[in-house]
Amino acid sequence: MTRRRVALIIAGAGLASAALVAQDVLRPAGDGPAAPLAISGSASSAEYCVSGYAARIHSLGWIDAGTTYRVTFDSGISLVAAVARMNLSDRRVTSGYGTPDLNFTASSSGIMALLVSSNGRDGCYRYKAQITSPAASVAVARPDSPVRPDPALALPKSPIETMAIAGEASSARHCIAGTWTAKVHDLGWVGEGARVTIDFDSNFDAIAGLTITDVAGQSTVSYVDDNAGGNLDPRFNLTTTRAGTAVLYVGGVNGSAGCYAYKAAITAPAVTLSQFNGSWSGTFTGSSSGTVAFSVSNGTVTVTQPDAGSGTVTQRNALGLGIVPLADCIDGRDCGFHGQFFTRAATGTCTWSGPFLPGGARQSSATGLWSCTDGRSGEWNSRRGTPPAPVPTPTPTPTPAPTPTPTPGGRDGQYRAVVSARSCSSAGGAFIEPCNWQFPSGGCDPQDFTFNVTGGVVRDACLYLSAATIGADGRYTGFYGGSASSRMPVGGTFSTSFQITGTDTYRNNTYRVTIQVTKTR
Length: 521
Prior knowledge:
The relative contact order is 0.12. This protein has an eight-stranded antiparallel beta barrel with strand order 20-21-22-23-24-25-26-27. Strands 30-29-28-35-34-33-32-31 form an eight-stranded antiparallel β-sheet, with no helix packed on it. It has a five-stranded antiparallel β-sheet with strand order 2-16-15-18-13, with no helix packed on it. The longest helix has 4 residues, at 332-335. The protein is globular. The chain contains one helix and 35 strands. With 521 residues, it is mainly β.
């Protein structure tokens, strides 16, 4: 394969804490294309090697809003790349993606990590980074003298030697300066449905962020926490909603500085061959190109495009030396799920093979090589769609008992609304603009606000809940004003603690939100 050249450019400096919040960023979240910059001279990195689907992580440091950055690579294999920029002060992550070139202008400030993946292949690369700072007139100020807590007002903090972590820490001690910068830690690949628990022990007021990025799928989900672990320590305890490379960011609240250790425990979901069941589609390139489509049913592959064929998906041990019992596998990467199938046409027989990666609905992926008896060859990749749900056996519908009509005003009171999850993805077709969410203004935060219900009418919701109605059965409908369109249809069923959910498509982006509502009085 010919060697490909690619490059990286970055610019800026600047800095910036939070309660647990999760958000999805699909596609570049606000970064706009930048004008090409000429790159000359040597690469800015030594040679790195990658294999499988887990991405290699490189910390690029603090990036100011308005910074122009570009990444180019020198590699003998096809790469995909992403950047995830974490700003712990406002709990926001911004992502950008390339194949593998990256050339954007940063829309926000934060600590930025570069993720590089070979998308299932083995090979090595070098990269070069350049930074163009924003013009002085638009530069975001970086605090030269960060605000530090008054020692007389600071909350008591246990020394790190006490080790609040149960058992042994999985990291040595790390220390950070107090300028809102953060340390970046590579936690490796996690599958969809994995249980992730991260505990900390520190001698300062720490805050942490976690991103899970599927570089090839161009999607990132993020979480931020500052004190769920008690004693001013953050803690994560969650189940992943998608597969990807996990990156941990650790900083200090309001310029707090000190040292910390962390313990990460990741429990992979059970893996079975049935996890690959469903319809798959993708593309192939090389001597010829087109669509590859097939279905998988408990390890049996049936091919429909580009020609009819069949094959199998099998599970091997870490060395690829034969099938092993499912119970011996930690996850699909350890046991090397591998597919091989054959298609037959008038010109001859073609062989398709490569690794299969489990990852849940619309996450499982496979890539590999193909070759034919007539001399043609190339590469292929495919992703799985959502498998059909089993049809349940019909059961008689019981006659519901009559429910009393609620008395008017029975839901009156004050409620707190907190966005527990939000995501944005391209709705398909041309990409019109980056994903955008409303920012706090006038003392109102679109991710955490209160509202009142008086006489069954929603009031005082900072305009983030509008045109709201509450039916006699408690069904709530209305609009959420925190997305780009400001009118996302949402709904839920009122109680003392319930969820409001909604979906909206605006300028070719699909926005989704989940709001946890709790009655406070």
